[in-house]
Amino acid sequence: MSRTPDQIAADRARYEEHQKKGLEFAPRALPEPSPLPPMPIDASRILHTETIPGGWYWWTSLKKGEALRVAQPHGFATVALVAWSAKEPSERLNLPDTVKVQWNTRVQKGRVPAPVVITRYQAEVAADDLCRTATAEAIRGFENNAFAGV
Questions:
Q1: Which of 26, 91, 109, 120 fits 85 for a cystine, CB–CB 3.0-4.6 Å?
Q2: Verdict on whether the full-model pTM lies above 0.70
Q3: Mean pLDDT, residues 68-95 taken together
C-alpha cells in the first residue's frame, strides 16, 4: 500500500498537533529525588508481601491507584518487568519505546515508561532509590560489588 504525499503530510500535521498538545501538560522539571532510605509504608496499607527467589517469577494484578514496591536488599541482579493491561492484553509496557520516545534510559521517579497507546500510560515510577543518584561511575561500582560490602 502506497501513501500519497497528501496523506503523509496530513499524518505529520496530526502528529505535530498531538505533540504540541502533549507538551502543554508536560512537567517542566522532574520531582525532587526519592528519600533514602525509602519511606516506610503504613502496614495497614500493605495488601500483600512476597519474597521471590532469584530466577523465579511472580505475577499479580494491580488496580488503578495501587502500587508495587520492588526491593532488592541482597544480591546484584535486577528485576525484569513485563506488564499488560488486564482489560486489553494487546496494551503492554514497552521498555524499548521508553528509550525511543523519551530519549531516556533512566526510568526514575517522575518518569513514565512509554505509553502503550500514545495517549494512555500504564505505569509510573513513584519512587526510586538507585537511579536518583546513579552516575555511570556509581552504577559500575554497584555492578562491581562496591555497594554490597563484598
A1: 91
A2: no
A3: 74
